Amino acid sequence: MATPRDLRPQSLIISIFGAYGRNLGGWFSVSTLVYLLNDVGVDDPAVRSALSRFKRRRILISEKKGGVAGYSLSESAWQTFDVGDARVLQRRTPPPNDGWVLAAFSIPESKRDVRYRLRSRLAKVGFAQVGGGLWIAPRALEPDARYVVQALGVQDHVDIFSAEHTAFRSTADAVNQWWDLPAIAHEYESFTAEFKSLRAKYDRATSPPINVKAFTDYTRTLTAWRPLPYNDPGLPREYLPKAWSGDQATALFYALHDQLAPAAQQYVVDVVGGAS
User: Fold this and answer.
1) Handedness of CA 233, 221, 186, 246 (dihedral sign)
2) What is the C-alpha to C-alpha distance for residues 239 and 175, in angstroms, rounded to an integer?
3) 100-163: which CATH topology?
4) 83 compared with 38, residue with greater pLDDT
């Protein structure tokens, strides 16, 4: 049986560097990473294998400090986290209708691998394909489009426009073709089903969470949450189902975030301090 995404070593390592590592300089010793990943149920060989893959992909840089082997975030990975914070940790509600941003590109066949990466990256930040080399998203995602284009170095092949949809069908019908809203809703519903009992447990608690437990629970919660704000482009309320499952899931995540994140961060600080 496949491992759930929120339990995969690679996803958990990304959460640990993103949520805790940057506050501590962006470097962890290998032993600290192994220790923290053990806390969330990942064994040593799986941790080391995932770290090696990240090193090969230049997401992490192998670096010794004081003779101790460890890994630090690459410059591009750090920048990606900084940009991603606005998406993953921003308390979004469906915005007012502010129109659309279009990304139009024409990349020659000789660079079709670049064309594929651009399409993939646009989809991952919430854009939908209108047709061919024309992609659309709510206007608030223009910074995401700019970041993707600049990160891939394809500015010479891309134009970005602000736009309004005026004809020949309703915008609501078009939106339902461009995005798979039932699939997005299902992801939110799955998140809520998985973590609502955890929130209930902490709501019933009469004392603050133990740091190690806060760390394991928050890291798993964050890792499961992280893809959802990217899959959801942030459509205006008028284009969403009346009972939008994203509302409940968003409230659930931020309730757990507020309850657990400070204690989780303190746990990592204590582990790093102990390792030192």
Assistant:
1) negative
2) 7
3) Alpha-Beta Plaits (3.30.70)
4) 38
CATH number of 5-77: 1.10.10.10
Q: What is the dihedral of CA 7, 8, 14, 20, to 10 degrees?
A: 30
Rounded mean pLDDT of 136-144? Answer: 96
Alpha-carbon span 252 to 272, nearest angstrom: 29
CB 73 within 8 A of CB 57: no
Q: What is the pLDDT of residues 249-270, one digit of tens each?
A: 999 999 999 999 999 999 999 9
Q: Cα angle at 218 between 6 and 80, to 5 degrees?
A: 65
Mean pLDDT of 53-70: 95
Give the global pTM: 0.91
Asked whether the beta carbons of 255 and 11 are under 8 A apart, the reply is no
- 97: exposed, middle or buried (C-beta count within 10 Å: 0-12, 13-18, 19+)? middle
The DSSP code sequence of 146-179 is HHHHHHHT-GGGEEEEEE---SSS-HHHHHHHHS
- The pairs formed by 206-213 with CB atoms below 8 angstroms and a separation of 24 or more are 208/263, 209/259, 209/260, 209/263, 210/263, 211/263, 211/264, 211/266, 211/267, 211/270, 212/39, 212/267
